[in-house]
Amino acid sequence: MDAPPNPLETLSLDQLRRRTSSKWRAHPEDVLPLWVAEMDVSLAPAVVRAVHEAIDLGDTGYPAGTDYAEALSAFAARRWRWDGIAVERTAVVPDVMLGVVELLRLVTDPGDTVVVNSPVYAPFYAFVSHDARHVVEAPLGDDLRIDLDVLEATFRRARAHGGKVAYLLSNPHNPTGAVHTRQELTAVAELARRHGVRVIADEIHAPLVLPGAEFTPYLSVPGAEDAFALLSASKGWNLAGLKAALAVAGPDAAADLRRMPEEVGHGPSHVGVIAHTAAFAEGGAWLDALLEGLDANRTLLGRLLAQHLPEVRYTPPQGTYLAWLDCRHLGLEPGDRPDGLAVASDMAATARMFLDRSRVALSSGHVFGTGGAGHVRLNFATSRSILTEAVTRMGQAVRDLP
Q1: Main-chain dihedrals φ then ψ at residue 117, nearest 5 degrees
Q2: Pairing state of beta strands 363-364 and 375-379?
Q3: Angle between helices 67-80 and 284-308 (to 10 degrees)
Q4: How many Cβ atoms sit within 10 Å of the Cβ of residue 351?
Q5: What is the pTM of this model?
Q6: 138 and 173 in contact (C-beta within 8 Å)?
Q7: For a surface tag, which of 21, 227, 231, 386 has the fewest beta carbons within 10 Å of its beta carbon?
Q8: Torsion of CA 74, 79, 84, 86, to 10 degrees
Q9: What is the DSSP letter of 355?
Q10: Contact 170, 121 (CB under 8 A)
């Protein structure tokens, strides 16, 4: 059987502009959108077939059964050589972030502390704080990886304040693309056990580990038996609009998961469950083609930045399709430029400059918490031509600054 084509090269810019999702409708048509985590791909044929069959049958009722969990379990065994997903220790939830909220409600109370590694996915702050939990940062190290000493000190301070403490782990890490090693995660689990911290791992980007790195499920390391993970096919197969995710409990967390309210399972879309199940069960060849394309784009982005934006610091991500760009040497944040000509008067100055002057939409680093100022997050899950045009425009905009 012939290998599938690169999914990133199957749709033209004109076709993409016909999309009605937020990525393509949040900005005017002359803007190249490289911001939100949505890929410019055609869907995996297995997903298309499954959804079409459901629509043809009118199979648009309520979700039922364990096919989704079984498909994820088999995928984990094939891809990660991990057989730790027991169907009876899973629950279908509307999406990963709503799953995070529901799991936090099981192991913490209002006013309790949730530790995160900043800079980190912005909704970690919003969803947690809106549910009356207090977010405390344990910043990443200078190498953009978990600083275990900082993490332990943060756990200790959080416990000293009383109440329960949870740790919301991004694995792989968004926005830096770091893929945590088994050694790192084992150390995290040991610290969490020592300090009585419950861990919830957001592993939505787990299928998107690029060549050179290997994904380690958090629940697979010793000491993680009382933890939870949340997974879905949303990022790996571009299914954010088809809502469904899985909460997975370690053996010692199974009783907690059983306390999840029954009505939470009413939130996922039945068609979403069908799509995610098909992705994990039959979408492997498509995913392989995607990963090859993302790897090529990761390399291309490095070349483009060296050519057009040599002042920007870029550590190629090990996973995800997100690039964390350190733009502080461009001097675009307020007060940074020696001539005093700040481009904007807010923390989003860098992203705003690229949007206004180059018509490229990026995610501003400041929304990812401490350590994000002066950075932008760029989504390189697009065609080579769009990526090349975007970075070329960005370089020209910097050269044209007064």
Answers
A1: -100, 100
A2: antiparallel
A3: 60
A4: 25
A5: 0.95
A6: no
A7: 21
A8: -20
A9: I
A10: yes
Specify the DSSP class assigned to residue 110: T
- The string of pLDDT tens digits covering residues 74-110 is 999 999 999 999 999 999 999 999 999 999 999 999 9
């309790």: which residue's tokens? 112
Q: What is the pLDDT of residues 15-69, one digit of tens each?
A: 999 999 999 999 999 999 999 999 999 999 999 999 999 999 999 999 999 999 9
Here the tokens at position 323 are 């690039």
Rg of the chain over all Cα atoms, to the nearest angstrom:
21
**CB count, 10 Å around CB of 359?**
19
Q: Are 366 and 280 in contact (CB under 8 A)?
A: no
Question: Residue 341, Cβ neighbours under 10 Å: how many?
Answer: 10
- Supply φ then ψ for residue 212, to 5 degrees: 105, -10
Whose structure tokens read 């989504």?
Answer: 379
Q: Can you read off the two tokens belonging to residue 215?
A: 């994904």
Q: Given phi > 0 = left and psi -120 to 50 = alpha, else beta, which region is 121?
A: beta
- What 60-68 contacts at long range (C-beta under 8 Å, 24+ apart), as own/partner pairs, is 60/270, 60/271, 61/270, 62/266, 62/270, 63/92, 63/244, 63/265, 63/268, 63/269, 63/270, 63/273, 64/270, 66/90, 67/273, 67/277, 68/92, 68/244, 68/246, 68/273, 68/276, 68/277, 68/280
Which amino acid, residue 16?
Answer: L
For residue 193, with 0-12 CB atoms within 10 Å meaning exposed, 13-18 middle and 19 or more buried, which class applies?
middle
Give buried/exposed letters for 17-44 (b at 16+ CB in 10 A, else e). eeeeeebbeebeeebbbbbebbbbbbbb
Residue 262 CB burial class (10 angstroms; 0-12, 13-18, ≥19): exposed
